[in-house]
Amino acid sequence: MATIIGVTSGAGMMHNGRAMPLPVPPSKLPAVGTTIFTVMSRLAAEHGAINLSQGFPDFAPPPRLIERVGHHMAAGANQYAPMAGAASLREAIAQKVETLYGARYDVEGEITVTAGATQAIYTAVAAFVRPGDEVIVFAPVYDSYVPAIELNGGRAVFATLRHPDYRPDWDEVAALITARTRMIIINTPHNPSGAVWDDADMAALQRLTQGTGIIVVADEVYEHMVYDGVRHESVMRHPGLRERSIAVSSFGKTYHITGWKIAYCLAPRELMAEFRKAHQYVVFAVNHPMQLALADFMREQPSFATELAPFYQDKRDFFRRELDGSGFRLLPCAGTYFQLAAYEALSGLPDIEFARRLTVDHGVGAIPVSVFTPGGEDHRIVRFCFAKGEATLAAAGERLRRVARITA
Ligand code: PMP
Ligand code: GLN
């Protein structure tokens, strides 16, 4: 009888009338289940709740963008795009970052279009992190970073974004850097807290990484959602950081097209060459007609991206007003399309249970924030996504204002 190597579990196939364990090797991600976004969106759908959990708009992308996709499909752009991305789209990206951040990136060698920011971040980790390497992340941490690190044999080292303002502590970060630190992954504006890093944060990061071989992966998918007149501090603005950084943004957030899974990253030539060695075998290339459509749209309407901040700031303010008179205590929201809400006046339940009950019994889906921390640190806070039309936000507000005590 053949021996199955690495069998640890499995309910059993039948072989010669005997139950055989399935050939499932030990998990590379033993602590991982299904993402909280999938769990909460499914729960909201099952119970007909207004879904303010997973982050996505409930309104349409610009019609002109969709029209351009149709145009390019009809015109025949239905085969593989170039590996690094359509040239016209890379040109539009280069133009944009030069205008916004004063950063010049070479269209040929320093910009790559990816299948979402998730893939860009995964690929950056796969390209650079070796077994035994340490990668510093900031907790609460976006859910895809740590699995990407662990799948590639690295070890996540957690710096704290301390509740309630979720600011980085640069002395702590300095103490976490060792000879094994290969990478630091940052995220500003920050999901889930909505905190935004300032110039002093970028200066501190620059100081700490200067003269080291540390690569910075900068998750800037919410770059256009920074409010109250504050400017987004991209790594691209800071030459001392730019030289060691892979900057990542997502068209999904900027053009209301999260379902298209299309994003991009920029890095100095040498880093980008290594990134592409992995990229070409992770996805090879990204869907072609949508790239061409985005290139057209960016060229035609460059202000769409920069008008996103006032657009979402109005939504933030509308949603916050809707929660006036509710039992929720709102935390500041400087950026992103997420609003954190503390519920200690409403319940003593753990946040995962509270979010479940809010969805099932009160008809509004939310994300518990403890799931973003390694120890499940629970400050009794949930996250609401306000990337919704006013009717949706008003209906959610009405339900949330009615929530009285939620007990076990
Ligand atoms: N990073 C952060 C902080 C995010 O919030 C998200 C998605 N909302 C992503 C990355 C993933 O972006 P994409 O959908 O383009 O993969
Ligand atoms: N980034 C989105 C959020 O934070 C979700 C993306 C996903 O579902 N993986 O809600």
What's the total count of β strands?
16
Helix vs. strand class: alpha/beta
What is the residue-mean pLDDT, rounded to a whole number?
A: 95
- Given as residue ranges, the uncertain stretches (5+ residues, pLDDT < 50) are 1-11
Helix content: 25-40%
- The outline comes out as globular
Distance between the termini: 53 Å
Strand content: 15-25%
Which ligands appear in the coordinates?
A: 4'-deoxy-4'-aminopyridoxal-5'-phosphate, glutamine
Gyration radius, rounded = 22 Å
The number of distinct helices, counting runs of at least 4 residues, comes to 15
- Biggest sheet strand line-up: 4-11-10-9-8-5-6-7
Q: Biggest β-sheet, characterized?
A: 8 strands, mixed
Keywords:
408 residues; alpha/beta; four-stranded antiparallel sheet
Q: Nutshell version of this structure?
A:
By secondary structure, this protein is an alpha/beta fold. Helix content is 38%, strand content 16%.
Report on the structure:
This protein has 408 residues and is of the alpha/beta class. 38% of the residues lie in helices and 16% in strands. The chain has 15 helices and 16 strands. It has helices spanning 36-46, 63-74, 87-101, 117-128, 145-151, 170-176, 199-209, 239-242, 251-254, 269-282, 288-300, 303-306, 308-322, 351-362, 390-402; strands spanning 13-15, 18-20, 50-51, 111-114, 134-139, 155-162, 167-168, 181-187, 215-219, 245-250, 263-266, 329-330, 338-342, 364-365, 367-368, 381-385. The strands form four sheets. It has an eight-stranded mixed beta sheet with strand order 4-11-10-9-8-5-6-7, with helices on both faces. Strand 8 (181-187), helix 7 (199-209) and strand 9 form a beta-alpha-beta unit. Helix 4 runs parallel beside helix 5 (145-151) and helix 13 (308-322) packs parallel to helix 15 (390-402). The termini are far apart. Mean pLDDT is 95; it is low at 1-11. Bound molecules: 4'-deoxy-4'-aminopyridoxal-5'-phosphate and glutamine.
